[in-house]
Fold these 2 entries.
Entry 1:
Amino acid sequence: MSQTEREVRVRFAPSPTGPLHIGGVRTALYNYLFARQHGGKMILRIEDTDSQRFVPGAEEYINEALAWLGIDIDEGVREGGPYGPYKQSERRDIYREHVKMLLDAGKAYIAFDTPDELNAKRAEIPNFQYDASTRNSMRNSLTLPAEEVKRLIDEGTQYVVRFLVEPGRDVEVDDLLRGRVTIKSDILDDKVLYKSADDLPTYHLANIVDDHLMKVSHVIRGEEWLPSAPLHVLLYEAFGWSDTAPQFVHLPLLLKPDGKGKLSKRDGDRLGFPVFPLEWHDPTSGDTSRGYRESGYLPEAVVNFLALLGWNPGDDTEVMSMDELIAKFSFAHCSRSGAKFAFEKGKWFNHTYLQTKSDAELAELFKPVLKAHGIEPSDFSDEYIARAVGMVKSRINFVSDLWDHAGFFFKEPVEYEAKSIRKRWTPDMPGNMAALAELLESQPDFSAAVLEPIVLGWIAEKGMHLGNVMNAFRLTVVGECKGPHMFEITELMGKDETIRRIRTGIERIQPAE
Ligand code: GLU
């Protein structure tokens, strides 16, 4: 069957060894976009055969992160499906049976070498590799008599099963992004496929067997797995599955924002951005790592940002919903070289997506931030919060930024900006402000359209300095000389609060020496 006629079935196959790195999220996303575009299936397979590296909570974290981002799974541990179980530690029988198939066919062999024996060999032979050149000098089922092998196994001696790589072969790896790469089988070692100690296969065997049994059509994964691909090609061949072997797509790495090299958690710590989708609490060290969700990113912004790290739609469109991404995605427009992790662009996407939210929606998102600052949101009407948010939203990248820009609507100033006091709080200002408060007392209508001409007219009539008076006014109400239009502020805040703040300001602001 040709690749194009085949039902598209892709899998995201993380190992639950810690929080899902943002690069892994991009891999999951590209799998998802490709599956949805082709009306195919997205499988989530948990590759937990390395019991040493298992981390509690990691699987739940993966599920939660994908759900948050809207990357829906069709078949998986929680979803079920026709080819389960979808967790490798629950598929031991299947792997055992497949290991036996390879042993019976003479494509694999049993090796008894202990770690000490292997270390001794490494010390003796420079660049030692377990392969055609060395396997005959090792303790394995190729060198020991059959009865001896049987006896050792019956006695419970630990062993591994190794893949028998034939030397002198050209191994061809076809990758959708990279084309065909041919490598010599001589450089490959006889990889361990199974360990009797924990009765579990290694990554290579489990991965290949499952991709075959789960009818995976495309293996879309990070470039770091490219070195495994020749071995995987040989494994498909050894099982007689080459005709239905999946198409490989190895995605380029995510690179440091400011230079060459792979993006790491340290880059995030150093430059102040998360490299994980959700906050992660390390169960062993107790350390907390920042997450996109907890840092105030919207999932649609993260998805859009990640989609463009290594792919473009063929034109300069940047803002795309999940549905648009699904429609436009194509490996033809995936880059072959690494994508710099331009985290500032991520902020821009978040800003852009926040602007698409209504004031009421943003107000809801803002309420927990208000609470965190000791403000009880129910002390204010929903309309008040929404209007306050609406006045400043064009300036924010994150919901939490709303506090910096609109916090004064909910809490009177406790401090007044020193530089503005120096500049604007001239000796006549306490008197001017008292007069302004009196003028405002006499105004029945506090709407901006009515109040603005009255106050400006009054300033002109008294021959006062417009800039100084308006900025001093703002200083008493806001605490600093920035923010939305002054008369929109006072319209929303209302007469009593405005006048109260002016009078508090007169008492509290100490003129500069
Ligand atoms: N378990 C591997 C990982 O953690 C899967 C690699 C693959 O997709 O083949 O990424």
Note: The longest strand covers residues 170-175.
Entry 2:
Amino acid sequence: MSVRLDEKLEPIYQDVLRRNPGENEFHQAVHEVLETLGPVLVKYPELADQKIIQRICEPERQIIFRVPWQDDKGEIHINRAFRVEFNSALGPYKGGMRFHPSVYLGIIKFLGFEQIFKNALTDLPIGGGKGGSDFDPKGKSDDEIMRFCQSLMTELYRHLGEYTDVPAGDIGVGQREIGYLFGQYKRITNRYESGVFTGKGLDWGGSRARKEATGYGTVFFVQEMLKARKESLDGKTCIVSGSGNVAIYAMEKAMQLGAKVIACSDSTGIIVDEKGIDLKLVKRIKEVERRRIKAYTEERKHAKYVEDGNIWEVPCDVALPCATQNELNGKDARALLKNGCTAVAEGANMPCTPEAIRVFQDAGIAYGPGKAANAGGVATSALEMQQNASRDSWTFAYTEKRLEEIMVNIHNNCYETADEFGAPGNYVAGANITGFLKVSKAMMALGLI
Ligand code: NDP
Ligand code: 2IT
């Protein structure tokens, strides 16, 4: 990470490295925020005196526990699960649960740290947290998923509550898993506490448009970035990495706004369909059949499948990384620019490496960081909590309209803050500073806690 930090911030970063050894993704997320906070401490020296940054970098609470479960053959497995309750200055801890074999404390801490600022950007009353497990849901039966979720919740329930900590989905956790987790919570606590989870099914307290919200929100953000440059999505060629929840609904909204989406992927390979991705087919393969994206070419014979292919080498105007962290590096960024890409927005959390971000910023293209661009998911989670609290259920159109307003607002706040702090067009600085100031002010008001 070659960008030097301000002299007041470097010792704080060194302390984070010392206190959190081996947690590379967490270090990366902290560095990216600190890079942009120098001018904030000049304008608000009291934040340094109150050690607000040091406090934000230390989670309020970290829970690590054993999850034993039995597979269909009766064999016993032991997984490890986490919930990092990072910051509750603005509201109950809020953030998803990730089930993926790569999960360890450093991943959950990076995600929880990002979540603090993202949630602050929504302007809704939600603090930051994240959880997950190194459990691999791939190839597991429904019963195995249920037993794992029940075992996990048998420990986690005591740390949750609609005013305490409210989980949702993330990689490997969708409506099916939220159902099993919520069911076990309800059973143990004897409370139908809808507001303790978001991403629920529509029949049992979920919000319309939550499933679509992250992907739709990312594309609304792109639309605003393009508008600021007197452009639009209409007629643009678009590529989207991943083919999970965020990717599918990013593709859907991009198509609705007139873009042509020609490529998507999963962790085994990429699909390129020059005639335009058949989204109905992707939904069936991924949401219903839970198969690999390779199956796409069984029905769309003209489409190309490249095992281990690099999606960022496919020429496009707009690129939306929607799979996972550090999936787009400096070399990929240069390939995108060479092929004419003019806008990148992160549906995933931290998908672009620090070098890739610098390449985009040096080239002056529109680049929307995840904290801002993918905040539509958690914002709609907060709308789900609102509906649960008032025992109401809004229409799809109304919920989507609220989501769009929130994304426009996030875009404008980031844009204006970047300008105010001398970094016009820099949405990274705009998002970090806007989110940081909101959390800091609340922390100052609440005293030394
Ligand atoms: P899903 O599990 O629904 O989909 C994840 C997709 O990314 C799959 O296509 C998966 O492929 C691919 N992927 C995951 N891990 C890797 C990896 N290590 N290497 C290559 N491909 C990988 O998750 P979501 O769509 O919910 O999440 C995607 C991203 O969006 C994550 O970064 C998440 O944190 C972020 N996000 C999600 C939100 C939400 O509301 N769900 C909100 C905001 C951000 P495969 O199936 O082969 O593993
Ligand atoms: O990264 C994220 O913002 C999410 N996975 C969604 C969190 C939420 O609580 O809806």
Note: The longest helix spans residues 396-420.
